[in-house]
Amino acid sequence: MLSFFFAGDILQSKVMIQDSKKKFHRKVKKMKNNLSNLLKNSENTGNTGIYLDYQASTPLDARVLDKMLPFMTTEFGNPHSSEHFFGWKSNDAIESAKGMVADYINALEDEIVFTSGATESNNLAIIGMGYTALDKSKRRTILVSAIEHKCVLGASRFLERFGFTIKKIPVKHDGIIDFEALNELLTDDVLLVSTMATNNEIGVNQPLEKIGIMCKEKGAIFHVDAAQGAYANIDVVENHVDMLSLSGHKIYGPKGIGALYINQASELKPTPIIRGGGQQSGYRSGTMPTFLVVGMGEAFNLMKDLKETEAQYISDLRAKLLEGLKAKFPDIKINGTMESRHPGNLNVMLSNRDARDMILSLQPKIAFSTGSACTSGIQEPSHVLKAIGLTTEEAEHSFRITVGRFSNMDDINTAIELISGRN
What we know:
Strand content: 5-15%
Structural class: alpha/beta
Strand order of the largest sheet: 2-8-7-6-5-3-4
Mean pLDDT: 91
Helix content: 40-55%
Number of strands: 12
Radius of gyration: 24 Å
Low-confidence stretches: 1-6
Oligomer: single chain
C-alpha cells in the first residue's frame, strides 16, 4: 500500500513539473515578444527625444536581441560544462559567434578572446604584453598616439612602474598621425605601438596599413583599438595588426562584452591579467556570458551585410546635418579631416556657444555630447581636441554629433532647428 501511494506521488510530481515547464516556456515566449516589440517600436521606450550620440553607445538592434533571448532564458547552460548537452549548446553558440567576429576582421576563430568590453581588451593587450616583455624581451618603450582613449593611455602609464617608457605620437591638425614623428620615435627599443582605428571624438580614421608596415619593419608589436572602427577597414591581415580590440555596444550589440584579437603567429603574446579556471586558452578566465557573446557575434554578422549601404546612408544624413548647420552658423568649423572619417561623426565648433551649456539646455529633446562618454564626468577640455591644436576655449565650444542606423531625416531637421534655436 505504501509503495502504491509513493508511486502516485512520483507521478503527480512529474505532472506538476511538466506543467511548470509549459508555463515557464509560455512566459518566456511572451517575454520575448514583448522585448522584441519594445525595441522595434521606439515610442514604447519612454524616450521621446532624438538620439544623435551613436559613438557613445548604439541601441541594441532587435535582430540581435532575438538571437540573445534563448540564452537569457531556456538555453542557460554553462558553456564550459563539457559533459552534458546544456553546456554543449551554449558552447556551440559561442563558437559560432566567435566565427562571426573573426570573419569580420579576417582572423581565425582561435585568435578571438572575449572580454567584458574594449577597455578590458585594451588593458589585456597593453599590460599583458608588458608583463610578457619583462621575461621575454629587452624592449621597454611603448608608443601611443596623443588622441587615444583614456583606457589605452591609463594602461600604458601603469607599465611605467615596471620600467617602461611611454611616449606619445603627435597628430597633425587634421587628426592623422604625424608619420615623420612616428618614424623618429620608432626605434629598436619600441615594444608596442597602439593607435585607434577610428577616433571616438573626432571620428578620424588612421591609415592602419601604413602604421602596420612601419611597425613590422622595426619588429614592434602593433595594437589597434577598433572599438569605433566598424565602418573602417579593420582587416588584421591587410593592416599587419598583431592585436585588435573590439566592443559590442558600439556596433548595435549589447554592453558588457568585447573581444581581443591576438595574432597566433606573433612571437610574443599577452600574459593574462585575469586568472582563474583558464578558460579561453588561458587568456581570460571566467565563465563566458553566452547571451552577450551571441549578441556581439550577431551584431558583427549583421554589420558585415549592412556596412557598405549603411555607411552611405548615415554619411548622407551627416551631409544634410552639416549643410543645415552651415546655413545657420556660417562661421562653423569642423574638427578633424572629413576625408577619412566615421561616416556618422560630426565634431564641430561654434565660436559663440559654450557646448556643455547648450547641450544641457536642450534636454530632454535631443542627445549629443561634448566628447567621450568615458570621460564625461571629468570637467576638463578634451585631450583629443587639444592634441589637434585647439585652445581650451575652442575645445569648450566644440561638440560631437553622431548619426546612426536608426536615425532619419526628420531627426536631422529637428536637430538643426533645436541647435539653431538658441542662436
